[in-house]
Amino acid sequence: MSVGFDGMGAAYFDGDSPEPREVSLHVAEGMLQIGMDNGTTLRWPVEEVRQLPDIAVKTGIVLRRASDPVARLFVTDKTLLPHLPQLTRRAPPKWCGRLAAWAVAAVAAVGLQIFVLIPLLADNLAGFIPPEGERALGEATYGQIREALDDTGLNPLEVCEAPDGVAALDALVDRLSGERDFRQQVNVSVLDHKMVNAFALPGGFVVIFRGLIDAADGPDEVAAVLAHEIGHVVSSDPTRHALRTAGSIGVLGLLFGDFAGGAAVLFLTERLISAQYSQAAETGADAFAHDVLAEANISPGALGDMFASMRAEHGDAEGVVAHFLTHPSLGERIKAARAEVDEGATYQPSMSPEEWAAVQTICD
Amino acid sequence: MNDTPIINSPWQSKPQPKVVPAGTEAESGLTVEFTGKRAALFWLALKTGFFTILTLGFYRFWMKTRLRRWYWSAMRPGGHPLEYVGDPIEKLLGFFIAVVILTFYIGIVNLLLMFVSFSVFNSSVIGYVASFAGLIPLWFYARYRARRYVLGRTRWRGVRFGLEKGAWGYAMRALWYWFLTIISLGILWPRMTFLLEKYRTDRTFFGSAQMVQGGRWQNLLPATRPFVASLLFLGAVLLWTLRVDPVFPGGIADGAELAGALDGLVEGRIEGLEWVNPIRLILIPLGLSGLLFGAIWYVWVSKRIMANHKIGPGVQFASDLSGLRVTFIYVLGNFIAYMMLVIGVVALVLLAAFVFSDSLVFFADMPGAGAVSDLPRWVSVVLLAVLYLTFFLLWGVLYNTFVTYPLMRHMAVTTTLPIVVGLPLISQRDRDAFAEAEGFAEALDLGAAI
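Output (structure tokens, whole complex):
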């Protein structure tokens, strides 16, 4: 049985010349018969005929034969389509092996880069940056943070500079420094913000938020946090981290391309990666703080007390969320700090009541 | 051709070159139809964009392929659709190849540049500038490669297009022309536009036929008129309001003083500042809009002028593109896309607030919430991520629907091929095997354009 179709407007392209050839169209004996004006007839088995996908309008459909990469048949009569059973069948996947090989290579390259080469380079180069360079880097970051945290959006966040409070903090750094003599490297300042946090920046900048002083139960807790941040400064963690970020953010930018604007995804991923790095640094800084506090005759348990009151305020972050926070799980750190307390020792408070009062009112 | 009726005779035994089916005009050349419906494109963009988000971006290679297939098949010179045969898998492969090559370059070079910048110059700015400058040649290289890939995967009437190799030559020329443009304060910009287009066009093939970009760069000078006029206007306005007849005769110390003065104006009080016809300042934003208009006009009208000088053997192009219409599409399209985006996002936020109203309570800083506060934070992170991605999905879809679509349509219907006698002489060209597809362009973030 043979069925004929409307060849009006239909054209056959042989895949060599861009000249359309008029055709007559029939389906008979499982073959799509394409009759040319010169009397020749092409026979395409109906199950080998495919339709080009995602065509804008269905009034002109383009057909091809699965075994022929270039020849095309342009048809306008849609009643032909039901006779072609495999129109939308996909070609078998090509280059699977190559694709898998390059995917592995890409993952390996990025992994090697982010987890091995960049940290290695950053760790080694951080020691070679001259102090002025570190200071400039820290100052720039400090300025950006002050501007970013300001709620009004007009002026950078205020630095608290009540003279008595500043003097008390300086005295505290002196006491913590003791024999180690890191006094010259460290530059402590307090920012007027309610966040319970503190951080270190390249160039020895240690920044404490007013919120942390308000939340602390006594001066020892502030001293403990200060000792912890000084630990970061002494091992130049912030500088390493800045170098590392510069390298890895470029690599990650490549991966995401223009997907979803990239920036936010980029930031989250960077957090995820740097969290692991910082956990090692955090543990090191904790250990440094325990030693420094003990040498200055201040109870190392104060660091644990500070974490405990932070946990009471915000809850512990464990599991998936913990990955997004740079600090290791608080419970572990509280335990570690309390284990450092020597039962036999008699610890002195880190500040006198007058000094502590001055620090508490440093932002007034 | 006068003998066409005889050739068309049904009793003619051998097919003759000039036989062309209905819908085309062999004698008077070919016109280009554009047949796609906007709604169909909207759904395709929405669907593929949604999959892209679900797959964390991996579907973007399929999205791009499918959108291109759609646009290409909508453009029909002589009634026959263009065909895009690019393969998503080959794009993915090309992306992996580019990542392998570029990670080492970008990661290590960025880190070293930052190091040098901190140690030698005590600032990060130089590092950023150098790391950006190092990418510029690569950027031009990637653009040429991407064009070669797209042309190599485009067919019409079964015959392939193609672009010859020459990406580094293109990158070097682009850098040199940019340098000349900058030191000539922009006067040689049209020369750069023309010569870069000529470099590409002269290497473009349709089957066996090589294209040639005729004309001279001076032909583009008329296209710069609106831009130059806006520039002169803006210059004159600045001169008038600042020097000849200053708005502030007392002078303005800095931005803060100006902001304060504007504040005072808004609140209906004038504090000691002398104004002389401050209304004249409105001319400045007017001049800036003129510059934007002039820039869009130049980009598209110069395309038209160059299209009118493109020829192949026995084939000629003509374009009747309207600069005004294109500017209109940009302004209106962007406006509609933004409006719909804002409405869509507000609706989404309201919906989210409604659905998640129970957990929203926990967002507030509840003292003593303890371990429970962990979960809401997690929920809020996911919620925010979804909102953010939806925002970008919607933006892409709306931009496609209201800017890319009308632009493509206008470009298609204003293009004609008045002379096509050379078409029968053209034959197929070999396939351009192209391992990395447009991987470099994708990795370097150039892939946003269709």
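Residues 374-413 of chain B form the longest helix (40 residues).
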